[in-house]
Amino acid sequence: MDAQYKVIDPVKFYRDHLAHKIRPDGRGLLKFRPAVINVDSIGTADGSAIVKIGNTTVVCGVKLELGVPKPEESNIGWLVPNVTLPPLCSPRFHPGPPSDEAQVASNMLAEILSNASVLDLRALCVVPERLAWAVYLDAVCLNHDGSILDACVVAAVAALRTVRLPRVEHDADKDITKVFPDERSSLPITGAPIPTTHAIFEDEVILVDPTSDEESLASGLVTITVQNDQMCSVYKPGGSPLADENMQACLSRARTRAIQMNNLIEAALAARDKEETKDQKLIS
Amino acid sequence: MDLISDQGLRLDGRRPNELRKIRCKLGVFNQPDGSAYLEQGNTKVLAAVYGPHEIRGSRTKALHDQALINCQYSMATFSTGERKRRPRGDRKSIEMSIHLRQALQAVIKTELYARSQIDIFVEVLQADGGNYCTCVNAATLALIDAGIPITEYMVACTASLANGETPLVDISHLEETSGGPNLTVAAMPMSGQIVLLEMSQRFHLDHLDKVMKHALRGCQEIKAVLDKAVRDHVASAGAACNWEFKTD
């Protein structure tokens, strides 16, 4: 009965719920969905993380490759983020070239990571003018249930934290490169930007952490990225106008969320480290 | 490289007729109509099914008496040892998609959904040999989760021959690339019928029977694991709605 009502008139369905200050999934208007992070689960990747925010699931894998730096940027490597929204994650996406939403998400991810100075590219340089690391960061959405950017950025940051660069020796005269896969060091990650998405419903009501249905009915969306208690990016692609005090309220919620997410990432990494020392103890 | 040690163990410590550890879960995501996650050893695959729904794109593709099955096989760029530049659309992926469709079309009761389309999307998150088999098995589970009627389980398994005499079942990536023959079989285990058979390399015809038997027995064992997972999933879903679930 509920399901038919939702299909026939989704706007009224939502309006009736919001009149009682509740959402169809039982959350309050300003309640976040629970988040789960798992790191280092993909063995073939050089670093990986899986993030689940409610039902939205994103897996981010990192692959490292060596390359020759460009002459005009001879002492930096590359960080190449990419977001894939395959047709399996939502009925809205069809097989073919990347959709607009995927391209926008890729761009936003790249911008947020560079704005927040998450990785100093100079640390990726092995030998200036000759050899540098390229870090390919691929975020694949497995289930799209709203707030995709939140999950992608958190997965990207967590995956980067798990990456271990192998030691590289380059003989310039003989042009021989030797990689030591067993001697690894972590990447110097200096940032942890955490985005929070809000949806504006019918120009008035603000919903935090919208699901896919809520995003499709929303009259506006705004994503605020916070790092170290500072705002580092705001993304508001048109939609309903947002009053200043509402924007301030969104920002303060984003700051609280950033602290919670950072704690979650640290806990996931700590659990992984504990597993590793346990494994090493078993081997030795 | 010796595929079998003196004690009769393979490179990963298994016996020649031992399958890799299978872990699976149905109904993992809420957007697709049916979804399943399957791990066979280190090969991790996710399958999602959408449908049956109206034909997308050109209406001319619609079949008047059966459903159109559309499969897409995709490998994540980080799923292989070397970064995969083209996750889908390259020749191998298209070939895999076609083989997937051919195998699943044999079991799906397409005559029940004329002029409709069923999409099956498979994403390989980590590839460690037997990718096609894990995809077929995951797709079967996803179809069951979606409630699409199938005549029986479609299960696939690989087999190989070590040292020219010992058959190996469920080969890993290392064993695949060591140069021995690779036999991939997709079969309906209950009726014992083979739907898809693929082989690479060569070995003497005398050994074919042995290797095929091992592969088919592997299919039977995998089917038992998948069947248990399906029954557990239905029992737990049913328990929430207070059904009575009896097994004979």
Automatic annotation (TrEMBL), chain A:
Pfam families: RNase_PH, RNase_PH_C. Keywords: Cytoplasm, Exosome, Nucleus, RNA-binding, rRNA processing. Its main location: cytoplasm. The keyword Cytoplasm applies. One of its GO terms (biological process) is exonucleolytic trimming to generate mature 3'-end of 5.8S rRNA from tricistronic rRNA transcript (SSU-rRNA, 5.8S rRNA, LSU-rRNA). GO terms for cellular component: cytoplasmic exosome (RNase complex); nuclear exosome (RNase complex); nucleolus. It comes from the Eukaryota. Residues 32-166, 192-255 form the Exoribonuclease phosphorolytic domain. Gene3D superfamilies: GHMP Kinase, N-terminal domain. It is found in: Cytoplasm; Nucleus, Nucleolus. GO terms for molecular function: mRNA 3'-UTR AU-rich region binding. Belongs to the RNase PH family. PANTHER family: EXOSOME COMPLEX COMPONENT RRP43, EXOSOME COMPLEX EXONUCLEASE RIBOSOMAL RNA PROCESSING PROTEIN. This is Ribosomal RNA-processing protein 43. It comes from Gryllus longicercus. The lineage of its organism: Eukaryota, Metazoa, Ecdysozoa, Arthropoda, Hexapoda.
Automatic annotation (TrEMBL), chain B:
It holds the Pfam family RNase_PH_C. GO terms for molecular function: RNA binding. Non-catalytic component of the RNA exosome complex which has 3'->5' exoribonuclease activity and participates in a multitude of cellular RNA processing and degradation events. Residues 18-149, 153-217 form the Exoribonuclease phosphorolytic domain. One of its GO terms (biological process) is nuclear mRNA surveillance. GO terms for cellular component: cytoplasmic exosome (RNase complex); nuclear exosome (RNase complex); nucleolus. This is Putative exosome complex component RRP41. Its main location: cytoplasm. The keyword Cytoplasm applies. It comes from Gryllus longicercus. It is found in: Cytoplasm; Nucleus, Nucleolus.
